Amino acid sequence: MAVKAFSDEWAKQFKDEVNRSSVYKSAAKGWKWTVGLVVEAEPDKNFPESVGIAMDLFDGEARDIKVGPATEAQKCDFVITAPYTRWKQVATKELDATKGMLQGKLKLKGDLPTIVRYTKASQEMTECTTRVPVIWPDAN
Amino acid sequence: MHDACPGHMARRKLKAKTKAKAVDYADQEPSAFASMLGGLIEANVQSSEAKQRDFDSLAARVGIWVTDIDEGVTLDFKKGSLVVHNGLQPKRNITIRAEADTVMNLSNLKIGLFGMPVYYDEVGRGVALKLVQGRLKIDGLVGNLATLNTVTRIFSVQ
Question: Whole-angstrom Cα distance, residue A36 to residue A54?
């Protein structure tokens, strides 16, 4: 069943998808840092306030994924920031996250060698977001 | 007693201990790709003495063009410093052309015996396959194999 984008239900389904993925489990072996996704507000897209997704990821497992204020996500070890529309493009496979980062469409904060070492894991994590059926706030 | 107004200063030269910035950017507004590669190389070099030695010995101009985003950089290695340019600049020794995924995978190549990149594990085989398929192109490889290996070692996060 489709869930509201970046809601608590979405976070739960996203976490389940990540934990179901054997690709992620193996690619993220050894990962021990928190990751924050900041979805910046776009009022004209019916997304009036910035939202943060704080992910507690450990050794190939998503231990917790929470939706909250952007400031909480910004405290994570790695933070990826983009406006709502960009995240929607990532989740609908219109934009590849790796390309998005190289083009500066998604802004990354954190230790670069570490994130590059886990490129495959982050790609699979993006794949997991695409598998969650979502109701977008700007959908007619 | 200490003289508060000394007429003469002791004749000793103070050696500046601060190291010059290893990575610099030619453009006032480096592209995201330029910043990312520059940042990656800087972090790699700072974290490994072997990479620092490679960095200190390398003098070459290396172009990287990401074919699926139509963006590139030129890395001008100058034995211990690097200037990152937006886009492809002239007089390059080597130019690597590949898709974004492959460029990231180049950074994930393991370094094996004698400092040679490993092409027999999963990542290495993937890179080799792209080379065979023509989806990874390296101009200037002939005569610059050692340079390419040094660049690969500096890139590698493994």
Answer: 5
